[in-house]
Amino acid sequence: MNDEMIVNAVNLLIEAHNYSALAQEMTHFVEEVRGGTPRYSGDLDPLNALISLGRANRAAFERVLKLVDEKRKEDPKTAKRDYQRDIMRERRQRMAKAILLHEARHGALKGEARTLEMASIRARWTRAKTQFIVDRSPPSAEDRLAAIRDFWDMVDRQLDANVANLRRTAAVA
Questions:
Q1: What is the pLDDT of residues 4-45, one digit of tens each?
Q2: Which residue of 5, 73, 92, 156 has the fewest CB atoms within a 10 Å radius of its CB?
Q3: Domain spans of the chain?
């Protein structure tokens, strides 16, 4: 492996506006069993070195992507965009789990009914989050943010447990 090409690839990814798409695409290329190594060209040429690294050593490839993530969080130009993207992804995943559980209990939802149920779930979560924060009465803004993170971690753990239980029950039936 050419270390200089890897460094160039890391720098390119740190600055990339479409980092998430590039990381997914490269991961797909690394996992692709058949066919030759896809070749990026032009400005993206250094990414070929990362694909080769990933095929030779998947753990090293993942460490490089983790390093890029950390560096992007340190850069004010990319940190806010990535943070917002990650928040929205988490919200979509959380809602998808909640809808999956609702549909398993009450049947499929379409159109307006689905939209209304999603609004109802968001409203319940908002009330529960408010009560969660009030119960803890955080003395500072940092403590309030920590309480909010704790609330969403609790919701995510419960959703994951309920989905796992749903799949376990479906596998038995």
A1: 889 999 999 988 888 888 988 899 888 886 656 667 888 888
A2: 92
A3: 3-74, 79-172
Nearest to 138 by CA among 130, 147, 129: 147
Cβ distance 54 to 30 under 8 Å?
A: yes
Question: Which secondary-structure segment (H or E) carries 30?
Answer: helix 19-31
Q: Which residues of 77-94 are buried (b: 16+ CB within 10 A; e: fewer)?
A: ebeeeeeeeeeeeeeeeb
Within the chain, which residues score under 70 in pLDDT?
1, 33-38, 170-173
Instruction: Give the DSSP letter string of 118-138.
Output: HHHHHHHHHHHHHHHHHHH--
Residue type, 35: G
Residues 6+ apart with CB under 8 A from 140: none
pLDDT at position 155? 96
Share of the chain above pLDDT 70, in %: 94
Q: Let me know the angle formed at the C-alpha of 24 by 20 and 28, rounded to the nearest 5 degrees.
A: 170
Dihedral of alpha carbons 31, 35, 36, 41, sign = negative
Q: Which two tokens stand for residue 156?
A: 């995510």
DSSP class of residue 44 equals G
